[in-house]
Amino acid sequence: MTEEAPWSPARAPYAIAVSQSWWFCRAVALFAADAGRSTGPAQQIYARQIFSQLRGLRRCAEMQEAELERLGIGQAARDELRQAVEAFDASVPDVKPGRDSLEHFDEYARGTGKLQREAIRNLGLDLFEAAAMFWGGGYDPSTGRLTEGPFAITVSDAVPAAEALQRAIYAAGRAVDASAQTGTSRSSPEEGAS
Q1: pLDDT along the chain (194 residues), means of 10
Q2: Given this model, what pLDDT does residue 189 score?
Q3: Pick from 148, 145, 166: which is nearest to 156 by CA?
Q4: Would you say 186 and 70 are in contact if contact means Cβ atoms under 8 Å apart?
Q5: 159/114 Cα distance (integer angstroms)
Q6: Measured between alpha carbons, how far is 18 from 20 in angstroms, rounded to an integer?
Q7: 128: burial class by Cβ within 10 Å (0-12, 13-18, 19+)?
Q8: Pairing mode, if any, of strands 145-148 and 137-140?
Q9: CB-based contacts of 83, cutoff 8 Å, min separation 6
Q10: Cα–Cα distance measured from residue 134 to residue 119, given in angstroms and rounded to the nearest whole number
Q11: What residues are paired with 182 via a beta bridge?
Q12: C-alpha span between 155 and 96 (Å, rounded)
């Protein structure tokens, strides 16, 4: 009787990208719905979560792209995922800097955030101008826009963009499964290591 290797997410990162992307996508939809039906602080709390959930979803796509490459999955599957990522980025282009501003609020409040340092260097702003430029925002239910400093997304665009990207991540996972069944891909991280 052979002993099975213990379970590890590193044995199937492409599947982890699929499952995590589902959670992030569902969170985007839930936070958007909750922001839409709430008022006051609750509305702002729910809406602000959308930046982080979209960023998490985008990271799942990056993970899946890396897995397709590592496993040697066909170019067609990689191209489909790349097109979905590009469409997502076009729909919600300010996800990463908006999330970064929220996550690193301590730096952005002091004018020392990465993008603020670039603005000071490239635009000749002083620390106080840079701090003001990249601070503030919130969710405006009348327009459906969520802002953080100069960064904005439209929630009604974010939800379908998230759903489309999650479907593409899932389809890429299916391509890995299909490739494994036909024996055309490397199947473990150890085999893909150089």
Answers
A1: 80 95 98 96 96 98 96 95 98 96 94 94 94 94 96 97 98 93 61 44
A2: 47
A3: 145
A4: yes
A5: 28
A6: 6
A7: exposed
A8: antiparallel
A9: 168
A10: 10
A11: none
A12: 15
Q: Please classify residue 78 by burial: count the beta carbons closer than 10 Å to its beta carbon, then call 0-12 exposed, 13-18 middle and 19+ buried.
A: middle
What number of CA atoms fall less than 13 Å from residue 9's CA on the CB side? 9
Closest C-alpha among 171, 8, 180, 191 to residue 79: 171
Reading the block at residue 33, the tokens are: 């719905």
Paired tokens of 73: 């999955």
C-alpha–C-alpha distance, residues 88 and 59, integer Å = 12
Instruction: Tell me how far the alpha carbon of residue 92 is from its chain's centroid.
Output: 10
Q: What is the pLDDT of residue 186?
A: 56
What pLDDT sits at residue 74? 92
Q: Is 117 exposed, middle or buried (0-12, 13-18, 19+ CB in 10 A)?
A: middle
Instruction: List, in sequence order, every beta strand (DSSP E) within 92-164.
Output: 137-140, 145-148, 151-154
Beta carbons within 10 angstroms of residue 5's beta carbon = 8
Output the six-digit token pair for 88. 């997502």
Tokens describing residue 147: 């802002």
Nearest C-alpha neighbor of 68 from the set 57, 78, 60: 78
Give the integer Cα–Cα distance in Å for 104 and 121.
19
Contact indicator for 151, 113 with CB cutoff of 8 Å: no
Within 72-113, where are the H helices? 75-91, 95-103, 105-110
Identity of the residue numbered 160: P
